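Help!! Second protein's tokens look totally different from the first
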Amino acid sequence: MLPVGLRISRRRALTAAAALVAFGMLAWWLLPFGRTSPSGELTFSTGSRSGVYQRYGVLLEEALAKDMPDVEIDLITSEGSQQNLARVASGEADFTIATADAVATYKRDGLPGADRLRGCARLYDDYVHLIVPQKSPVSSVRELRGKVVGVGQQGSGVRLVADRLMTAAGLDPQRDITPVPAGIDTMPGRLENGSLDAFFWSGGLPTNTVQELSERFDIRLVPLEAEVVDKLHATGDSTSYYRSAVMPADAYLQAQGGTPVSTIAVANLLVTTDRTDPAMTEGFTRTVIDSRDHIGNTVHPAQLVDLRTAVYTAPLPLHDGARRYYRSAKP
């Protein structure tokens, strides 16, 4: 039999060893062992200066700077989804945001670099707005005939969906209206001064620029009924990403008068290419998910970014780095 002192020492050693094992397992669970911080440069193409993409991008840049301090980040504004996709596909930008319908159209048309596009995350939904002065007689898309209409810039997702909506309503977007290729930074002012009769916008709820317009000028949101979505779906695969939706009654209190408004919605995707380093993509995707609440306090649509749905990036395959993040994430 071992002496008492030796038995106690052995018991203490075993206890200490068990504690070390438990600590090691806890540390493995809590600490990011094996996670390397990427380094280098990346360019993020956002949107128009007063749009949701740009405001989201500015706050995301701050979060990325904290999470990936060795990465130099350059934000560049754009006309919107279509230009964003062209930039990423060509290598002019590394990451961007684009609507799923714009992505599907880019792929369907076989535009340069389409096969290299990859998804990182499904973000929040854009809601299509058709905005007119409160006293306007326009109550449907088809009643835009003969009007001067803001349709979004040529490279924007707004332009894509506006043209499709008018076509579905039986209008020729070039002949039956006077199209004004302007962005959200100028369309509200043009409606206010009378140089536009209406304008289209597609963005998260609420869009600050629209909110501010409603607080200084009487506007109304024209409903986009479910039958319009059915007609859009009938035109081809790239329109299958539109869905019927409802703007909540409190999205724009002054403009809606406490009444929900029927519309269509489409998901936004965080997009990169297969050229992007997996570690960079993993880190970028992690920051997008982790910064949701902080960014959402300022850019409200960001509150809807959800780990459970972010992985669904159709029509794009998931980037390997993003997949690595989702496999390691703990819901």
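Here's the second one for comparison:
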Amino acid sequence: MTSLDSVLDKDGVRLTVDDAVATVTLTHPAKRNAQSPALWRALTEAGRALPGSVRVVVLRGEGKSFSAGLDRQAFTPEGFDGEPSFLDMARGPESELDATIAEYQEAFTWWRRNDIVSVAAVQGHAIGAGFQLALACDLRIVAEDVQFAMRETSLGLVPDLTGTHPLVNLVGYARALEICATGRFVHAEEAERTGLANLVVPAGELDAAARDLAAALLAAPRDAVVETKALLSGAVSRGYEEQRIAERAAQGRRLRDLAGITD
């Protein structure tokens, strides 16, 4: 293995790369890794900075909480230094507000790229934007003390950082509605039972479990994993017959590749 290479470290986000595994760490434990527009831009930059050799990305948060969600300073009149406050944005043109939210969402979209598998290692609080960031990843390993909650509705808002689609896919419409509308906590046992978590481990074993999963994900050939991920992610929107056709096409590509046949 090569030595750990720091690629980016800014605005509460650190990206390090060790061969085929990248680690994105939220680095404001004193604020329970509360999120801000600057942090979202850094997350977007981290996705763009990934070397092509990376196959697995592990997302983690320093300290006792993965992420307590949006920093409430966003809702104060002064907002963040050098940033428009959310209240000022709401008073501006609707098209500009939509474009700004779309920019924020970019921090949450790249985790499901077909060329990588993303793993969120989640401990303590994962609330609101923190919950949605964990949902942005393909897989989730959680500590026994995890507390997921979608609090946006309780604040008169809606979850808008791409979390609604994976939440419904994982737990179903009725449970997703109940989780969002009540803002209640989802603890480790329920998270594992409903599919929000792939694995629950003691808090002290979380990083080691993420490393073990990353190693297991690297065991299969990259192209096979890429094709399989594309098949599975596309199955949500395809009918049965469409999925059969997609499987045949993907397998044909793999067999031709293994046989050394180029189109």
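Reply: Different proteins will give different token patterns, so don't panic. Residues 240-258 form the longest helix (19 residues).
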